[in-house]
Amino acid sequence: MVETLTISIKLRTIFRDIFDNEMMNITESTSKMDIEDWDSVAQIKLVLAIEEEFAVRLSIEEVSSIKSVAGFMDSIQRHLAGQ
């Protein structure tokens, strides 16, 4: 199973790529409220990048309920544990 630290590092890279900001400070508590450009289009880009990176498929219900980095981490961990 992929460790939480590995997931966190990969998510930071994905967020920095999607929002085109290498200096962006991303923590588990980072939410949509913290990133001005985190809109519905960015959410789709994040989901696609995460699904590709972790070889998981997030459901529409999951995607619509995720509002933070921690939410993505939880979903990824659930999917990877189920493999």
Commentary on this structure:
- The protein is globular.
- With 83 residues, the protein is an all-alpha fold.
- α1 crosses α2 (40-54) and α1 packs across α4 (69-81).
- It has helices spanning 4-18, 40-54, 60-65, 69-81.
- The protein has one domain: Orthogonal Bundle (Non-ribosomal Peptide Synthetase Peptidyl Carrier Protein, Chain A).
Low-confidence stretches: none
Count up the helices: 4
Distance between the termini: 9 Å
CATH architect. name: Orthogonal Bundle
CATH topology: the name is Non-ribosomal Peptide Synthetase Peptidyl Carrier Protein, Chain A
Number of domains: 1
Task: Provide the fold topology.
Blueprint: H1 4-18, H2 40-54, H3 60-65, H4 69-81
Helix pairs in contact: 1-2, 1-4
